[in-house]
Amino acid sequence: MKQSLQLRLTQHLALTPQLQQSIRLLQLSTLELNQELEQMMSDNPLLERLDDPLADCARISPNGSLDRPGPVEGSQNQSVADEAASADQPAGDSGADSFEGSSGNDYDGDDGGGHGESLDWSSEGRSSRPDGDDDDREFAQVSSGGETLRDHLLEQLTGTGCSPRDRALMTLLIDELDPDGYLRISLEEVLEALPAELEIDPDELSGALTLLQSFDPSGIAARSLPECLMLQLADRVGRGEKIDPITRLAGLIVRDQLELLAARDFVRLKRVIRCDDDELRAAQALIQSLNPRPGNGFATEAAAYVVPDVIVRRRRNGWEAAINPDVMPKLKVNDAYAQILKRNRSTAANNLVSQLQEARWLIKNVQQRFETIERVAQAIVDRQRAFFTHGAVAMRPLVLREIADELGLHESTISRVTTQKYMLTPFGTLELKYFFGSHVATDTGGSASSTAIRALIRQLISAEEAKNPLPDSRIAEILGEQGIVVARRTVAKYREAMKIPPVQQRKTL
User: Fold this and answer.
1) Which of 6, 296, 405, 452 is close enough to 395 for a disulfide, judged by CB 3.0 to 4.6 Å?
2) 109: helix, coil or strand?
3) Would 343 be classed as within a structural domain?
4) Is the pTM of this model over 0.90?
5) Which range of residues forms the domain containing residue 449?
């Protein structure tokens, strides 16, 4: 075999560690970004965060003592901390050594570049958020604490004065209730799970269930929806309400004909139970006043709240998107370590030099992440200006490629930016992906957004006659009269996606 040397020129994309980190940070949500930063700060002592999200939490120091939250404002320690914070950034440091969370925009309610806190969505520049304590009261979040269903029932059990054996059986049944307050397993299954040496009689367990079903809330520990509603009807009668014909008729429907009522088959229902329209209407109203999920009013899990990454405000020249300053971390390089590295260039400091470079990369990549999100958000706002003025019915078709071509980015980058990133708009907090929709042809040769068509379908259904609701075929005809060509099955698909029941279930007497 003859050996030879060849020179070949090729091109390939090399993903440097800095580029890989930039891509990873771009696809993270706000919560995931904070978790990533916490991990990086624990691994890199040169990286600091000025807006520590755990500053108000107690921490355990290395010596085992409990460190309380930061010093009280106005104390001597606070003044020392303020002096240290003012000296964190030396005059000679470059901009890459710190990221204060500012993207160069004014987050105020006017056009003068002030520092207000209002969110201005009106053309006159009036704030839509009140100032002072009223703002906190209006947007106060519900506490995750509260009495659970189990605690509520056990508290009532304590005051019953029943025997310890019955109390143990009722506690067992309470533990088997689901969050809606239903007993989803049969009494036979409960008996099989109990030790045989206890010799529990089925009637004894049934009696414990009957006593539990008399507890508040009414309808608790039911094994089916009809039983739950029947317990509530019986409880109304037990409180002294007269057993009138309407209550008796409601009980008959709940016990035997609940499926016909759910299907809105009023003609057959009137024939089976032998009543007129007024009686059936009154019985239906009584049944609808009952609670099919008696356990839902009690605390279960803490509600999850979405913090918007982008805030949209109305300016004199149109709508403007800006990064929410509350989600922007304030990162910087530790000044003490940086000064040590400037004075000490020995080989022992090589590890710190590497960590210093990593810290600067991270600060730059985090800043670039928010700049990219803001650019993409502004491009979306520019394309969907009609939405911010008129709502979802004015949404125009938009695909990732349009934004990518406008900003000179790849579609995959736009996809990463719009995933799990949220925008605060006059119509609520929406994910950035919400503003992208497929094209639906119109008679004029143009196109309409699927989001706008969904909004039109919802408007038509909300304005329909209760006694004569619109079928999917008629909705398709109405949209066709407006120049939007959609098939009946497309209307049905959009209606089901919005969790709107079919025409039979929307019909009333």
Assistant:
1) 452
2) coil
3) yes
4) no
5) 439-506
